[in-house]
């Protein structure tokens, strides 16, 4: 589609040139003609994008509007227990998203506008690992544009296509008019059927809506990011090829090679396969729920496969109890925080409620040393766990940073400052504490050198550590 005077409803001047401010419908038509299955357009100043705005402007300082779109995946390949079939569909649909991105960006550029897109997946900003790797949170933008809502499986559910979509976002400098019809959905497409809970091999999706990020990340993303670094450490630690074979099976080595050669492969995504939500899918579910479960969910539950878990985690206990026919593969946790905020904001994502049974304690943390550089946005960790001011460097980076962690009845809260009367006070040099978490510094040495000091029952620190196994 070419932008013409018929689609321009207003005009602005930039660098002396007149450029049209488009009706949102013109952008929707353009994206659909480029191959998108559904499209929404939102202004960057929408309140739903408040947490995203700074990140987007950092990458695209000229951005004023966002074009959000979905490309539909084929259902039956995703529902196949054979991961090669499902992953091929993911990769091919990802290429479709990239093609839409490039076509729309090129058309906007040819019409004198600035536009750019962020990848649907990889490549990402790996120098920020394990922080915010992505430039744009496609899920957040898609929700704001009315393309769906997040289900308890943490996938965006499109009202028509359900969970079987991949998301794309294009930033542009166009002042879009008449975009208000693209608003967040009033209703929720999620049917609360809990089939994603039943299909998840690690127990990451909880029936009460809670989500064990660590369990999902450790297994499903085994050949991405942290799982890859864990594999490299197995290679480095092995004495010889025989020792390596004890650590990593031939099948696992071949699978890692395949991911490196052809594109990283997900280990599960059963939650997407099991989801019956969406107008195009719903008729297949209520007609015969038992048949649906038998055909779609049971093959995943019955599948004999390796499940990657952090030792002594809730995921390991879940697999032992629910899937005795599946093979447990214990691997090192790879969410090693390298900044202080990474540690504090990451705690809710690696907290294991099952390991906290019987614990009720309040912890006061005081971190000293050069902490100013720690306070950067760590987008891997979902916002909202800490007060907003933790996203900003302290006025004096030499001043201690205080935080309170409370574990009670299987729940964790993390807040700024020292709140209430603590059961244990922990004062630590920041560098020493982060090194201890990464296994690079010893607890005894930290205590002897007084880089780590405790006030209260030291057994509470041991209990604290068990709630965050690595």
Query: What does the average pLDDT come to?
Result: 88
Instruction: Please report which band the strand proportion falls in: under 5%, 5-15%, 15-25%, 25-35%, 35-45% or over 45%.
Output: 15-25%
Based on the coordinates given, report the CATH architecture of the largest domain. Answer: 3-Layer(aba) Sandwich
Shape estimate: globular
Terminal CA distance: 52 Å
Tally of separate helices = 17
Task: Describe this entry's structure for a reader.
The chain is α+β, with helices and mostly antiparallel strands and 470 residues long. The protein folds into three domains: 8-172, NADH Oxidase (3-Layer(aba) Sandwich); 195-330, no CATH class; 340-466, SCP2 sterol-binding domain (Nonspecific Lipid-transfer Protein, Chain A), CATH 3.30.1050. 36% of the residues lie in helices and 18% in strands.
Key words describing this protein structure:
alpha+beta; NADH Oxidase; 17 helices; globular; 470 residues; Nonspecific Lipid-transfer Protein, Chain A; 5-stranded mixed sheet; 3 domains
Could you give the topology of this structure?
Blueprint: E1 8-14, E2 17-22, H1 24-33, E3 38-43, H2 50-59, E4 65-72, H3 75-79, H4 83-110, E5 115-117, H5 138-144, E6 149-150, E7 156-157, E8 165-172, H6 195-199, H7 213-220, H8 225-237, H9 241-247, H10 250-262, H11 270-274, H12 289-302, E9 306-309, H13 314-322, E10 327-330, H14 340-350, E11 361-368, E12 401-408, E13 411-416, E14 424-429, H15 430-437, H16 443-448, E15 452-456, H17 459-466
Parallel strand pairs: 9-10, 11-14
Antiparallel strand pairs: 1-2, 3-4, 4-8, 5-8, 6-7, 11-12, 12-13, 14-15
């Amino acid at each position: 589609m070419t932008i013409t005077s018929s689609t321009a409803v207003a005009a602005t001047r930039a660098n002396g040139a007149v450029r049209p401010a488009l009706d949102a419908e013109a952008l929707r038509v353009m994206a659909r003609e480029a191959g998108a299955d559904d499209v929404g357009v939102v202004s960057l100043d929408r309140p739903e994008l408040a947490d995203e705005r700074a990140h987007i402007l950092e990458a695209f300082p000229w951005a004023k509007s966002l074009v959000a779109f979905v490309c539909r995946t084929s259902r039956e390949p995703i529902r196949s227990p054979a991961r090669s079939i499902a992953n091929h569909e993911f990769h091919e649909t990802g290429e479709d998203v990239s093609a839409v991105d490039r076509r729309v960006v090129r058309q906007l550029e040819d019409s004198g506008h600035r536009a750019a897109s962020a990848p649907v997946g990889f490549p990402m900003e790996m120098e920020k690992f394990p922080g915010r790797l992505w430039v744009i949170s496609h899920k957040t933008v898609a929700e704001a544009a009315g393309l769906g809502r997040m289900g308890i499986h943490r996938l965006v559910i499109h009202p028509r296509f359900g969970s079987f979509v991949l998301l794309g976002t294009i930033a542009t400098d166009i002042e879009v008019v008449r975009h208000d019809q693209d608003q967040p959905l009033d209703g929720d497409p999620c049917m609360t059927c809990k089939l994603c809970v039943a299909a998840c091999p690690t127990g990451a999706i909880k029936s009460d809506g809670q989500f064990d990020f660590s369990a999902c990340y450790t297994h499903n993303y085994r050949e991405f990011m942290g799982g890859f670094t864990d594999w490299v450490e197995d290679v480095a630690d092995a004495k010889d090829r025989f020792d390596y074979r004890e650590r990593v099976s031939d099948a696992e080595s071949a699978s890692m090679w395949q991911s490196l050669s052809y594109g990283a492969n997900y280990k599960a995504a059963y939650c997407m396969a099991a989801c019956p939500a969406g107008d195009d899918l719903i008729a297949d579910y209520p007609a015969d729920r038992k048949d649906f479960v038998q055909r779609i969910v049971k093959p995943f539950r019955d599948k004999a496969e390796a499940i990657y878990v952090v030792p002594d985690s809730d995921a390991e206990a879940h697999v032992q109890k629910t899937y005795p026919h599946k093979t447990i593969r214990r691997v090192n946790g790879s969410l090693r925080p390298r900044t202080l905020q990474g540690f504090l904001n990451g705690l809710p994502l690696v907290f294991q409620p099952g390991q906290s049974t019987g614990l009720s304690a309040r912890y006061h943390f005081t971190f000293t040393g050069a902490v100013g550089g720690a306070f950067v946005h760590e987008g891997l960790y979902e916002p909202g766990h800490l007060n907003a001011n933790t996203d900003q460097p302290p006025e004096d980076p030499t001043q201690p940073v205080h935080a309170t962690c409370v574990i009670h009845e299987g729940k964790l809260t993390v807040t700024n400052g020292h709140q209430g009367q603590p059961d244990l006070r922990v004062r630590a040099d920041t560098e020493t504490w982060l090194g201890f978490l990464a296994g690079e510094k010893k607890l005894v040495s930290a205590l002897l050198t007084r880089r780590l000091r405790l006030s209260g029952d030291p057994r509470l620190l041991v209990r604290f550590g068990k709630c965050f196994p690595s």
